[in-house]
């Protein structure tokens, strides 16, 4: 794949994750904005990110006769329409808009990751994916945060809707093969599917733990004594530090086996999570934001590189975003319940436990593979 095509696919992939990029901004205030109970926020997250994960998995079944790039373009148009619908004052329509935009983006992510996973040098390619994602997330998060402070919570959704339209333009006449999304796979590289399924499960468990912490960082910042806007600004300013993690993954490349960076990151975050929630201070919070950004972006390319070893056609890497989105949808929802029932400290302990379990399953997958 040419570098120019890789950068264009990476840009579209970043838009595919736009739902999770801006979710921390509206998660805490959406129930109040619609005059609904606290559970409404969790329902909206599950509708959008759960929809994305569901359609990411089902794309080969539902749209198997469609070529990849036309399918992605339609998905981007549907996502833009869903985001515009999200400005409605109706709670029911808002949940519908979340599911519509999430499902469409899940299909887009299946396409972009199928294309990336079927190429050469998957680990380095995903490092580029993440570098573009960091740039996109930083600009969109900070811009949306500023607009939300001035115009209210609903100002976020037209912004991300516009990025979906921009991605539609970027994807136009992309010079890659137009393979049907349900085309027969090339011969699998793994001896059986169990290690691949375990790797996908480990990816999901890791991101449940990571997203439990990441999605709750604004609340942790307020527990450390910051106001909501200052906490969000620190998160936004911390995002570029993820660039260092992705660059490190790019430089290290495949010189180490995936188990090494994944283990380092799991242990680091499992130690940081209880520290952040049991002893929140501004300094610890700021360091935690940076550590979370760097370590996550360093480890993710190695998860995908490990998935790519099981199938040369990109089948398992295409499902990687579903595992990430499952974690991103589940983690914050569980965190809200844990915080309400047991307090903030329980959030960190839960995150640490899921990270360690995910790391253990990943190690077993590597051993069996």
Report on the structure:
There is one protein chain. The chain has 369 residues and is mainly alpha-helical. The chain has helices spanning 3-16, 18-27, 30-33, 39-62, 68-85, 91-117, 122-151, 156-170, 194-215, 217-223, 228-238, 242-252, 259-278, 282-308, 315-342, 344-368. Helix 5 packs antiparallel against helix 8 (156-170), helix 6 packs across helix 15 and helix 13 packs antiparallel against helix 16 (344-368). The longest helix has 30 residues, at 122-151. It is globular. Residues 183-191 have low confidence and may be disordered.
Give a short synopsis of this structure.
Helix content is 79%, strand content 0%. It has helices spanning 3-16, 18-27, 30-33, 39-62, 68-85, 91-117, 122-151, 156-170, 194-215, 217-223, 228-238, 242-252, 259-278, 282-308, 315-342, 344-368.
Mean pLDDT: 88
As an assembly, this protein is: single chain
Terminal residue distance: 27 Å
Structural class: mainly alpha
Beta-strand portion reads: under 5%
Give the number of helices: 16
Overall strand count: 0
Helix/strand order: HHHHHHHHHHHHHHHH
Main sheet characteristics? none
